[in-house]
Amino acid sequence: MTEQRGRVVCDLTVSADGYSAGLNQSEERPFGDDGGDGWGSRLHAWLADDPDENRAEIDQLSAAGAFIMGRNMFGPVRGEWDRPWNGWWGDDPPFHAPVFVLTHHAREPQPMEGGTTYHFVTDGIESALEQARAVAGDGEIAVQGGATTVNEYLAAGLVDELRLHIAPLTLGGGTRLFEGVPPLDLEQVSARAATQVTHVTYRVRS
Q1: Is the preceding omega at residue 146 within 30 degrees of 0, hence cis?
Q2: Separation of alpha carbons 165 and 23, rounded Å
Q3: What is the structure's pLDDT at 6?
Q4: Nearest-10 crossing angle of helices 125-136, 147-155
Q5: Is residue 178 within 8 Å of residue 18, measured between CB atoms?
Q6: Residues 43-75 pLDDT 10s
Q7: How far, in Å, CA of 29 to CA of 41, rounded?
């Protein structure tokens, strides 16, 4: 009997021209030149301003059994871990599950409140996925981003479902989805227009 494995899904908010963050990202402006305050307020207005209208999509964001993210999404610290940093989300992050952070610099796991523990993976995207599968069982594994990390998983053929949340603005530059990714065969599963976003879900055909 074949072991059941959970789907690998990617949720990403992008501008209409495909950027998940603008140019000139910094600790003070983690989303860079994002057409707003640098904290993604316009890109992610659908989350902050219209939670009731987008409840189904918001609930999906935290439904996975394990999460994977790039170090750039985890925080602005580069190189060695030369200062304490436990993510942008405070003492009780919204994940409530293991989170595997891709990095080149080893660090001990960091438990947080609410069931989130950050694990730091230094041996690549496939190792992170194997570790996430081990804890998620048949639950979903969510590749959270940023776009560079999503692109790596797409290019490696490791994504089952791509959920895009398309904000009605263009950025003109920055970190772009599909950069360096070979042509993909996508099957549209659903599409829904809301006030400040269009939600589109694609199945990635193998």
Answers
A1: yes
A2: 20
A3: 87
A4: 90
A5: yes
A6: 999 999 999 999 999 999 989 999 999 999 999
A7: 11
Dist CA 27 CA 5 (whole Å): 37
Share of the chain above pLDDT 70, in %: 98
Rounded to whole angstroms, the Cα distance separating 39 from 25 reads 10
What does the radius of gyration of the chain's CA atoms come to, in whole angstroms? Answer: 16
- Compute the distance between CA of residue 63 and CA of residue 11 in angstroms, rounded to an integer: 11
pLDDT tens per residue across span 29-39:
999 999 999 99
3-state secondary structure of 67: strand
Question: Of 162, 164, 150, whose CA–CA distance to 200 is shortest?
Answer: 164
Burial, 117: exposed, middle or buried (Cβ in 10 Å; 0-12, 13-18, 19+)?
Answer: middle
Residue 167 is encoded by which pair of tokens? Answer: 């904000």
What's the pTM? 0.94
Distances in whole angstroms, Cα of residue 168 to Cα of each of 18, 23, 52, 174, 203: 11, 18, 19, 16, 23
